[in-house]
Write a structure and sequence with these properties.
10 helices, 4-stranded antiparallel beta sheet, alpha+beta, 42 strands
Length: 671
């Protein structure tokens, strides 16, 4: 090789080295930091805004009745659709029903009425539906029914008639927000009791029982400054909205309507009026299932595509809250519902679960030890002198004492016997599953290939043809904390964390109160189990890695009654269950492909203390979003805001942050 060639080679190597070092320097100082790809500010206040990343480089923003699709790369809008235009003259709600096979319920003991949540003082007063004169129950010999059931039904409807008359009288005297709120709570209890009475009377085969409610005898009183009139479209439709993208169609559920929009043009291709406000939604294999609340508090299930609509009236009462209101110093009482019907789907045909109470059994156990003095002494030992951290420690001790004061430190557990039967109401001629009996309140979940019945520590798996595949045991019952309910919010319908279970090609992952359990999907064989109290979210990255968000709490938090907890994020090998790393810092995490994001929100401890003495001094929120290295968990960048986002979504290298007055989409090239 000539001297000139050697010199050229050396220069090339040096140039490449310098270029590489410059690129590395640029990447770690500037290149990997997040950039604001899209920022849209808005002042419209007609309902809470909703945003959804619906595809590569696209985000849909819903403000009031206007839906706008933005291109993230350019920041420009592709189209805007006005939902008001099609809703100005709405069609009558779909009434034609698809008949569904229904089990004839056996008589069961009546349950206590469910404790309904209080309606805010600004809501419209709900009129109590008064039953007509109780229909005469035919003689047992004529109807061939249980005479004791007939008598019990007659007495129950007589009490309901008296109760409704009192409610109708009370409506005329409402004057204050507190009176309105109290009335709505009592009216909700009445409707829950009426639904249970109808379910109990079903075996009598008296058609008039199913239509015994009539309008109240007096009009609903106008409570000036406290009732909210639905004068126009905006007031009526913005109580709840969500966006669901599926291929070339974008579905927008808003109030009592379901809109199908063409993703390319924004043209509204279908406007489906529902029987009432939508309550839940599930993606089927090639459709969308929407559950709507009927005026009498029941449900109607609609199967929607852009070319077809099929409607299924609910075959049984909807689920009530899991617990009825408890007395001070006493734990909450499990709500033993005689009959209920649940619906689930996860990119599969809708499954209907008919659940019947056979035998009542409620047990009580002590779950919280110690007292207020010992808790405060223990908290004092953990203080470090930092005002913010110390305030958090003492607030945990106070919260624990408040729970102990409210419940007596005890828990009441539903160990009743139930019967569960699965059906496919939209598949003509499908065979229902054989009834299975379980101990404890059954809960139903679906994955892409399985339907799961979980009761207590029992896990039963069915295929999508209603055939029982296997049965296994959990280490603990599943948890139903606030964070789990948040994951089932309408705008999280497309998330893989909407239920405490998910699957990959050959494994099923399911978390209970204290463990992440991994089963062989085909046989139910337990493969491995990771202990962590307070798991809130489990996510797969598509390449054999699991990310777990957990509270990692104490034994008391195992039962959902507080206790000291610290947020924990873990990376786990899906094959072996080996923990690669664990971080005790972040409050939430989001996985999209091979990208991991985490968030943390803090407040200055002095601001919290000052607010106690001056309510006008609200503590300032300090919110940070982090991009974490999947190799080590170390932060690669952070995005700081002095406000809390309403929702966070991630898609590859992009993250959408929706605030009350702005939509931000940030992106980064960080690896």
């Amino acid at each position: 090789m000539s001297t000139k060639a050697i010199e050229t080679l050396i220069k090339t190597v040096v140039a490449l080295f310098v270029l590489t070092m410059a690129t590395v320097f640029w990447y770690y100082t500037l290149g990997r930091k997040p950039k604001l790809a899209l920022s849209t500010r808005f002042t419209e206040k007609s309902g809470e805004p909703v945003a959804q990343l619906i595809g590569p480089g696209e985000v849909l923003l819903l403000l009031g009745t206007k839906a706008t699709l933005y291109d993230v790369a350019s920041g420009a809008s592709k189209w805007t659709a006005d939902l008001h235009a099609t809703a100005a003259a709405p069609a009558a709600p779909v009434a034609k029903a698809t008949p569904a096979p229904a089990a004839k319920p056996a008589p069961v003991p009546a349950a206590k009425p469910a404790a309904a949540s209080a309606v805010k003082a600004g809501a419209k007063v709900t009129a109590a539906s008064a039953p007509a004169s109780p229909p005469a129950v035919a003689a047992a010999t004529e109807e061939k029914t249980d005479p004791l059931l007939a008598k019990r039904v007659e007495r129950r409807f007589a009490k309901l008639q008296t109760w409704a008359a009192k409610l109708n009288q009370k409506r005329a005297t409402l004057k204050t927000p507190l009176q309105v709120e109290a009335f709505n709570v009592e009216a909700a209890k009445y409707h829950a009791e009426l639904a249970e009475a109808r379910a109990e009377a079903a075996p009598l085969h008296r058609p008039e029982l199913s239509a015994m409610a009539i309008p109240a005898t007096a009009p609903v009183p106008e409570v000036e400054a406290f009732t909210r009139q639905r004068e126009d479209f905006d007031e009526e439709w913005h109580r709840k909205s969500c966006i669901l993208a599926d291929g070339a169609t974008v579905w927008i559920l808003q109030g009592s309507h379901a809109f199908a929009l063409d993703r390319g043009t924004g043209r509204i291709v279908k406007d489906v009026p529902l029987v009432g406000d939508f309550a839940d939604a599930y993606f089927g294999a090639d459709c969308l299932y929407v559950a709507a609340t009927t005026p009498d508090g029941g449900r109607q299930i609609a199967r929607l595509t852009t070319t077809d609509i099929r409607v299924l009236p609910a075959a049984g009462p909807a689920a009530h809250s899991r617990f009825a209101g408890g007395e001070p110093g006493r734990p909450a009482e499990p709500n033993l519902q005689p009959l209920r019907t649940e619906y689930r789907a996860a990119r599969s045909e809708l499954v209907q679960a008919d659940i019947r109470l056979l035998e009542r059994k409620v047990t009580e156990r002590q779950i919280m030890s110690g007292d207020a003095v010992s808790d405060m002494e223990e908290a004092d030992k953990k203080t470090t002198g930092g005002s913010a951290s110390d305030a958090a420690i003492f607030s945990q001790a106070l919260a624990k004492d408040a729970v102990r004061e409210a419940t007596g430190g005890k828990e009441r557990i539903d160990e009743s016997t139930y019967e569960v039967m699965l059906r496919r109401p939209f598949i003509t001629g499908s065979t229902a599953s054989a009834p299975v009996r379980v101990q404890g309140r059954p809960e139903i979940f679906s994955t892409a290939t399985l339907d799961l019945v979980i009761a207590g520590q029992t896990l039963i798996a069915f295929d999508h043809a209603n055939k029982k595949l296997w049965e296994s045991k959990l280490a603990q019952p599943i948890s139903f904390g606030d964070e789990f309910e948040e994951e089932r919010a309408p705008n999280a319908l497309t998330a893989t964390t909407a239920v405490p279970c998910l699957e990959d090609s050959d494994r099923l992952y399911l978390f209970d109160r204290a463990f992440l359990n991994t089963f062989e999907r085909a046989t139910g064989k337990l493969l491995w189990r990771i202990p962590s109290i307070g798991i809130r979210k489990v996510q797969l990255d598509g390449s054999g890695t699991i990310y777990i968000l957990s509270s990692n709490g104490t034994a008391e938090s195992l039962h959902g009654y507080g206790g000291n907890t610290e947020p924990v994020t873990m990376k786990v090998d899906a094959r072996t269950g080996r923990i690669a790393w664990k971080l005790e810092k972040y409050e939430n995490c989001f996985v999209s492909g091979g990208n991991l994001y985490a968030s943390r929100e803090t407040r200055n401890g002095e601001d919290v203390v000052n607010q106690v003495f001056d309510r006008s001094k609200a503590p300032q929120t300090r919110f940070k979003l982090y991009k974490l290295s999947t190799r080590s968990g170390e932060p690669q960048w952070e995005w700081f805001q002095t406000r809390r986002p309403l929702s966070i979504e991630s898609e590859g290298k992009k993250v959408s942050l929706l605030f009350a007055d702005e939509l931000q989409v940030i992106k980064s090239i960080a690896l």
